[in-house]
Design brief:
Helix content is 36%, strand content 23%. By secondary structure, the chain is of the alpha+beta class. The strands form three sheets. Strands 3-4-9-8-7-5-6 form a seven-stranded mixed beta sheet, sandwiched between helices. A five-stranded mixed beta sheet has the order 11-10-12-13-14, sandwiched between helices.
Length: 352
């Protein structure tokens, strides 16, 4: 993590992800007293102190969703479906969904014991990082990307073979729901995710042509995290996606990003009284959800019309002294140069 001492010699760590912060907010603001599950989302920067590479930066931005307070596997499927449909809505193609179950505090200790024994018998063939993980967090050995460790990892015991009955039933229910939702998936016994708070379901969505380094969406259950932060035992599941990673994949697939909607109306005015009416009309149109650009300073009408044309705005409202006295405005269609006189009071409804 990105940790350093500030000017007061306090040790500061920048937020590496969003889930723990959301769980803390859930506790601090009494969300456990609301009808469960509580569905939340966030958009936030994160920081990790590691070597920058394609799709991986020291500062990045996450969009994430969390559903806290329910253990039903349907919620796991709902989260996966949401992330799957989100990527489809962007136009991303050829994505793969990988799922796994890493068990719970009841069944995982036995699996970790078997896993540690297996890797200890092959310790001389492991990379230096994996030798350290063997004592610290043996589960992370399954996530190693070093070629020298790949063959050993591929033959390691599988977590799904050591699940207790409740965890096995939960995983089977998830697979059943994904079948009903017609979301294709592959069970990947090496999938453990990189954070220690996960339990039961873990999942990732990856581009077909890439390795896990370019995972677009990752998530899973963290049924023990709320309790770890001081609350009562509370099941929860969530996912996060990196915005930079999504952009990278959109570029790789040559998918154009839709343009930001342009303003629909330009207001041109001449004189102080007309300026006051323009200010009122601008506010009224924006309250109707209509994008408006209002001319500023004492530009000539010709200059204002040129500005509207350069902005490619199709409707121009023109207010002068005569229009103020009559309570009207000229509404010009820039696509065909036709214009009509309209009552000022009718403009918001007409333009909407």
């Amino acid at each position: 993590m990105y940790t350093f001492d500030d000017r007061g010699s306090n040790s500061i760590t920048l937020k590496p992800e969003g889930t723990a912060s959301v769980c803390r907010a859930y506790l601090e603001h009494g969300f456990q007293n609301l009808p469960q599950p509580v569905r939340l989302y966030y958009f936030s920067p994160g920081f990790r102190y590691e070597r920058p590479q394609a799709g991986r930066f020291r500062e990045f931005h996450q969009f994430g969703c969390e559903a806290i307070g329910e253990a039903d596997a349907f919620l796991d499927a709902e989260m996966i479906d949401m992330s799957w449909q989100f990527l489809k809505s962007l136009g991303l193609k050829n994505t793969l969904l990988f799922i796994n179950s890493i068990g719970c505090p009841e069944c995982r200790p036995k699996y970790l014991e078997v896993l540690r024994s297996y890797f200890s018998n092959n310790v001389n063939e492991l990379c230096p990082d994996c030798r350290n993980r063997l004592e610290r967090n043996v589960l992370r050995l399954l996530d190693c990307k070093q070629p020298g460790c790949q063959q050993i990892v591929n033959q390691a015991p599988k977590s799904i073979d050591y699940l207790c009955l409740p965890c096995a039933d939960h995983f089977q229910a998830l697979k059943n729901y994904l079948g009903i939702l017609e979301i294709p998936f592959e069970v990947n016994q090496r999938l453990v995710r990189g954070l220690d708070y996960y339990s039961r379901t873990v999942f990732e969505i990856q581009p077909e042509e890439e390795k896990s380094q370019s995972t677009i969406v990752g998530g899973g259950r963290y049924d023990g995290l709320i309790e770890m932060l001081g609350g009562k035992a509370t099941p929860a599941i969530g996912f996060a996606t990196g915005i930079e990673r999504i952009i990278l994949n959109l570029k790789r697939q040559n998918i154009p990003v839709p343009a930001i909607p342009a303003p629909k109306v330009f207001i041109a005015c001449l004189g102080d009284a007309a300026r006051n009416e323009a200010v009122k009309l601008t506010a009224a149109l924006r309250k109707q959800g209509i994008g408006v650009i209002s001319a500023t300073s004492a530009k000539s009408l010709k200059a204002q019309m040129r500005q509207a044309n350069n902005l490619k705005i199709s409707r121009v409202v023109i207010i002068g002294e005569d229009e103020v006295k009559a309570g009207t405005a000229l509404l010009k269609d820039m696509t065909n140069s036709q214009q009509e006189t309209v009552k000022l009071a009718d403009l918001p409804g007409l333009l909407k």
